[in-house]
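Every protein is a chain of amino acids, and every chain bends into a shape of its own. The protein below has been through that process, and both of its lines are reproduced in full.
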Amino acid sequence: MSARCVNVSVCLLLTSLCLAFLCVQQLKSELDRSSDTEPDSFPLFKLSVVFLLCYFLIKCWSPAPPARLCSSPPKLAASGHSSPDRKIVLEAYYEQKLKLSPHVLGHSKAHVTKIVSELVKVGKTEHEDCTLTFRGDFVQIGSAYEQHKINSPDCFDLLVPIKVPQVLKLEPTFDIVKELPFHLGGTAICRLNPCSKSEWSKYRKDFNDSFCIHVQKKCALSSTQVLRWFYSKMHRCLNVIKYQCEDRCSVTLSVVNEQLILKLLPKSDYVCCHIAMSVRLIPALHVGDSVFLVAQPWSGSAAVFRPLKPEAFWYIYLSKHEQKFLNWLKVQTPNHPCHLKCLQILKALRDVGSREFDQQFSVQWNAILCSYNMKTALFHLLLKGPLEAWDEKFLMERLEDLVSFWRERLQKQELMHFFLGNKNVPDFLTVPRKIKEVLPVNLLAGFDAALLDLVSFQLLKTWNRVHLIMKLNNHKHLPRNC
């Protein structure tokens, strides 16, 4: 009840009491004067009328009882009268800030393809006997090749397949132990077996010393040692082609946060192509069925995983299956689908939201809402409902569904990998049985429950005022996350 309503009620009550008091006094005086005459019922009638009048005044003017306070958290902004304004702002922001020019993206991809093709070609031809070598190709992965990259076509991810000597056979082990630390979820060990023991005996010691580690008394490839070899190999390949690339492109190679990054700056006559590009080169082993094992540095983590040896573990990549699912969606969804647009806008929501946080929480926010986790959440949501509902005209409704789904996952502290350990993955994706039967992987494992609750709250808060934030940031340069 407001203070104003309380004051009105008190004033009415006091006025009524005063009026009643005056009437009683008036009645008493009249009774005294008329004590010698015949009694009359008229004063009693007047008193009754006064009391009834006071009652109705209090009844009519007293405020209604206050509504019960809702203890539940704030809800998503309803798609009512504010929805058109929100959609206009989001559409404008998407067109001006998020949507990539197909022309510029095509030129960027062409530059990356040309330079990296020359690098891996050199790496394939220049090799020694019984050592690792490049397969001679590369695999395009990530948002730039899946049509959900935002901001600018300046970041690319490529898998560079490597081969072991022909006398060796790769034997990946996906079910390592019953329970792994969350850091090692979605990993495998790549064991090696010689095809010919007599031939392999000549090179075994040198190869084992350079690339291998012993796990459970068996020889396995060390991801850390393979990474060192890969870095060195790429630098040698770049030195071979660098001179012939000088006229058309500036090329440098460096290790940033333990990742090998190829920096490209085209020297083109076209102004639109003057974009500095970063290409992440990732060494990978192809173990069949479009499954790749990716090397990890694991620096400084030996003490965390004891008695396990982290350098023996490789991350499982199923990029080809993800791209197959996205291609299937192109056919199954309406002519003007909005699922990728929803993913791009949610990435922008993450980026504009992180600007308001301190550095520590911003890092955690971006780690939880990383591009891969967002794509995984979208995959799960797409399989929940009819694909016809992902038409462009339902953009706002689907965005609200995606935010609600994320909040549900954060509150339950669970976002399962779409492929690993998922026996219900669609059959047309032809995911190998060994992948379906591994231990399920929770992508939110290892994050504190309080942190996930805070991310859920901030996600809702950011979404409910996203149109205001994007209006303010439409003219600003935002940090770019893939």
